Amino acid sequence: MTERLYDSQPQLDTFTARVLSCEEADGHWLIGLDRTAFFPEGGGQPADHGSLGGVRVTDVHEKGGVILHTADGPLTPGTAVEGAIDRARRTEMSQQHTGEHIFSGLTCARHHCSNVGFHIGPEVTTLDFSAALTPADVDALEEAANAAIWRDLPVKCWYPDPETLARLPYRSKKALEGPVRIVEIGGVDICACCGTHMPTTGGVGQVKIIGLMNYKGGVRLTMVCGVRALRWANALLQENRAAQRLLSARAGELPESVQRLMAERDGLRGRLNEIGEALFRAAAEAEAGESVRVVTAEFLPPASLRHAAGELARGAELALVLIPDEGGCQFALSSAVRDVRPLARALCEAFSGKGGGPRDMAQGRLAVLDAPACRRLLQGSL
């Protein structure tokens, strides 16, 4: 069994230990110690990183009561080594985990629900609740969570005796046996947990919910705390400043500038559609005397493709409208007198396309835009 120093001394950065085992596995070494300050992955929290006897530790996990450190080099069993955890990573993980306790404790108490999922990812943390929370609910919970953080409440981690444990109204996702580690934040949360935490809530800094979605009858929230909340705010500020520069907008005027830009875009798009339809009508008139009509409509809106092909087919044997796009074209093949399906398949085979439709109208996309070759193929079917 490995003595878990992170349980009793969570602020310990360096420690000494004796190497119990060292085995090679998949190009790395799994090192067992008699004691460790490295937290192994578990309970939704990733493992600590750091160094051990001069080798880099990139992962930690528990197996049969022994904590194994995944390292990029071997250590000799029986020797004494010094370990050092990556304090910045530990603090970041502890901020997320403590922030989750605060938010989940308040959520479960106020909405009589359960926290059914929790995971600290590389950039954000996700929390799953069995209640269908609204955005207003989440805003109120976020405000209450931050108020608890700023009160700098103590965070107590301990192993109560069986009698005391039986009296505690603690949260747990599953039934537990043996010693149970309890994390208690006065008046906010009491929960069974194996993770690392800040010594007081003030160390979390801030909780910010940045995502809300319906999930399995409840909700999934996306959260950032502490240093992650700062990174998120800085990234958002940089994006905002970049958009302001592009739009020549002053602080606080970005939404209005975007609205003006969208209005200009919509106006230009409408004008372009009008021009595209006028050009199509002119090209269609030039094809009026043909039994096989083919028009390449560069500026025609894709939504008008089927209608344009139907109009072009009036009085013709076959009508094909092509709208160029990136790397090929969209097509619509129409006829009032012939079954166009075999011809649509022939077009797709000849020009690496896909498509289909009913007898009088086939639609799809061709990887190659070659209007003269399309015309020849259709004329050859007459």
Highlighted features:
382 residues; alpha+beta; Elongation Factor Tu (Ef-tu), domain 3; Threonyl-tRNA Synthetase, Chain A, domain 2; Diaminopimelate Epimerase, Chain A, domain 1; 6-stranded antiparallel barrel; 20 strands; elongated
- Average pLDDT, all residues: 94
The CATH architecture of the largest domain would be 2-Layer Sandwich
N-C termini distance: 85 Å
Radius of gyration: 33 Å
CATH H level of the largest domain: which superfamily? Answer: Threonyl-trna Synthetase, Chain A, domain 2
Instruction: Determine the structural class based on helices, strands and strand pairing.
Output: alpha+beta
Q: Residue share in helices?
A: 25-40%
Fraction of residues in β-strands: 25-35%
Q: How many domain regions? A: 3
Main sheet characteristics: 6 strands, antiparallel, barrel
- SSE topology string: EHEEEEEEEHEEHEHEEEEHHEHEEHEEH
What is the general shape? elongated
Total beta strand runs: 20
The name of the CATH topology of the largest domain is Threonyl-tRNA Synthetase, Chain A, domain 2
Characterization of the model:
The protein has 382 residues and is α+β, with helices and mostly antiparallel strands. The chain has three domains: 3-85, Elongation Factor Tu (Ef-tu), domain 3; 91-234, Threonyl-trna Synthetase, Chain A, domain 2 (Threonyl-tRNA Synthetase, Chain A, domain 2, 2-Layer Sandwich), CATH 3.30.980.10; 275-379, Diaminopimelate Epimerase, Chain A, domain 1 (Roll), CATH 3.10.310. The chain is 35% helix and 30% strand. It contains nine helices and 20 strands. The protein has helices at 5-8, 87-111, 135-150, 162-167, 227-247, 254-286, 305-312, 341-350, 371-379; strands at residues 3-4, 14-25, 28-33, 35-36, 50-52, 55-63, 66-71, 80-85, 115-120, 125-129, 155-158, 182-185, 189-192, 207-215, 218-225, 292-296, 318-325, 328-334, 353-356, 361-366. The strands form five sheets. Strands 2-3-7-6-5-8 form a six-stranded antiparallel β-barrel. A five-stranded mixed β-sheet has the order 16-17-18-20-19, sandwiched between helices. The chain has a four-stranded antiparallel β-sheet with strand order 9-10-15-14. The longest helix has 33 residues, at 254-286. The termini are far apart. The mean pLDDT is 94.
